[in-house]
Amino acid sequence: MTESVLDYMTRLGRAAREASRVLARASTAQKNRALQAAATALDAARSELAQANQLDLAAGRANGLDEAMLDRLALTPKVIDGMIEGLRQVAALPDPIGEIRDMRYMPSGIQVGKMRVPLGVIGIIYESRPNVTIDAASLCLKSGNATILRGGSEAIHSNQAIARCVALGLAEAGLPEAAVQVVQTTDRAAVGALISMPEFVDVIVPRGGKGLIERISREAKVPVIKHLDGVCHVYIDVAANLDKAIRVADNSKTQRFSPCNTMETLLVHAAVAAQVLPPLAAIYRAKQVELRGCERTRSLLGSDVLEATEDDWHAEYNDAILAIRIVDSLDAAIAHINHYGSQHTDAIITENFSDARRFLTEVDSSSVMVNASTRFADGFEYGLGAEIGISTDKLHARGPVGLDGLTSEKYVVFGDGHIRT
Predict the structure, then answer these.
(1) What is the DSSP string of 137-202?
(2) For burial by CB atoms within 10 Å, which of 44, 72, 181, 313 has the most?
(3) What is the DSSP secondary structure assignment for residue 265, as one 8-state letter?
């Protein structure tokens, strides 16, 4: 009799829970040895990785995947180099597990502090990019968590080949193979099972399109670390240095169009709009960015700027499209961001300290910036080494989620026979 998807996922969950107990007590040296050995195994398996990836690419073409999806799916030599480097970078990061902080004596004589501990078992659901398998496995392993990885069906052969390399690394370090498990079935029922096993899985991290994340957020019986949208803003204040404003607003939109930290709406104070918007518009037009604007923007920049609708202020384009609104005050800019934004990343360009502080205090987003491009909202740029994703939730992790975001804390108490009276 063949095993059902539910039975298979239950078996993976049980094995992951058992492995998590071993990982929780693994030494930093042991975890780093596994990461370094996995990097060596990847380097040695380049031809096998390429062959597996060719199977996925051929199937993707046959199934009509577009060029952008095929590009994300491809395991090029450069991508493999990046995975190897990523493993080595995570191995070099400080280990957060076991760190004790804030120890203090209480009037009773006991000492109380907090110890950083793993979350336990992390389920990660993602699409297309097989290199995410390494990002997720390395961060979970270093933070002492077992992980169950459910990649997209379009990358099944690539993910399995990568998983074999990770398994070699775990074996080299004497860690259980179940510490990192890649789901072998492409049956969508596996996702439903994974997000419904709180007895085995402590948290779910979905990485992919809005539809996937909405479904998981709606159906999961396990806590979810996620962000739905990246509707990011840059506000050019009345007190902005206009050279900085042009440089930052250009980079925030055009450095790359598709990431979740790319600017989608530009807000400009009315007092500086006539000075800053025409040169910016020239840059955007030269880079084939379609502009959509409010009535004042269109009268300033010309009829080739399309009329922005209500939907445009809510839009995450992930494309060469930008919405522009002229506002009359900092209050209006903050109100717009808090109403239309997705609590991801928002920036102010200003030389006025008070305006900057107000923006930092009142804009309710996971990353808020002063005189810097929104494209910096990234785990690597924040010094986290790597990230599992970005969270716009307010409980537990917020912003780019690195090693610390995959841990929790527990209180630890030291006494010497103390009793409560």
Answers:
(1) HHHHHHTT-EEEEE--GGGHHHHHHHHHHHHHHHHHTT--GGGEEE-----THHHHHHTT-TTT-S
(2) 181
(3) E
CA angle 22-28-33, nearest 5°? 90
Give residue-wise pLDDT tens across range 373-416.
999 999 889 988 778 888 988 888 889 898 999 999 999 999 99
Query: Distance between terminal CA atoms of the chain?
Result: 62
* Cα angle for residues 193, 199, 205 (degrees, 5° grid): 60
Q: Phi and psi for 413 in degrees, rounded to 5?
A: -130, 130
Q: Would residue 377 be called left, alpha or beta, if left means φ above 0 and alpha means ψ between -120 and 50 degrees?
A: beta
Distance CA 392, CA 404 (A): 16
Please provide the average confidence, as pLDDT, over all residues in the chain: 95
Instruction: Extract the tokens encoding 51.
Output: 């062959």
Burial class (CB in 10 A: 0-12, 13-18, 19+), 61: exposed
Using CA atoms, how far apart are residues 174 and 181, in angstroms rounded to an integer?
A: 16
SS3 124: strand
Q: How many CA atoms lie within 13 A of 383 on its CB side?
A: 1
Angle at 33 between CA 28 and CA 38, to 5 degrees: 130
